[in-house]
Amino acid sequence: MGHQISALFSGLGRFFEYPVKRKPICFYRQEDFTATGEPHKKVSDAQKMPMTDYDKLVDLFYKRLAEQRQYNQEMKEKDRRWSIQKVVNRFPGWNEVTIANLHSLFLLFDNQSNGMLAFDDFSAVLESLGDDSTIEVRKEKFHAADTDGDGWITYDEFLLLVYNFHPRDEDQLTGLALLCNEVADNIQFVSNLTVGEQLEYGLF
User: Fold this and answer.
1) How far apart are CA 141 and CA 126, in angstroms?
2) CATH code for the part of the protein at 93-200
């Protein structure tokens, strides 16, 4: 009997303990309230005050500002495409994708962020491209490209060095210059694949 009574009281204890009911937490946006914490009164469109000349002037200013920013962005993109095209014209056999990939590699390995590469940085670029030349050959080519002898090469010197790393065969790209094209083509091929296609190729 005592066991049953204790079981009954323990059951009642659980009954009063669960479930715990609490009020839900409500979140409100700060902009829905005034500085004093009172909610803003919603004003219907019919009750809104007409725009003053000052409001119209401000709206016109921001509209023109947005148009100017869009124009500047378009011109910047146009200049970028034009500059890439100029570089492509200097290096026959390379296309915009190859130049863009080399530019990305140059920025990636510019560890000092000074717009130049040291020998170790340049060697790391070659490793990322899959070049298997020896350290001695790389040093020889690097020092030949470093015209002022300060131990650094600029972006233009970098492009010339990579392009002329191996001699061309009857105006046909060979060696490192050809490898840059192949790497850029592979990157473009992968970037054009869907996620499912990348899974099929085992890229994940």
Assistant:
1) 12
2) 1.10.238.10
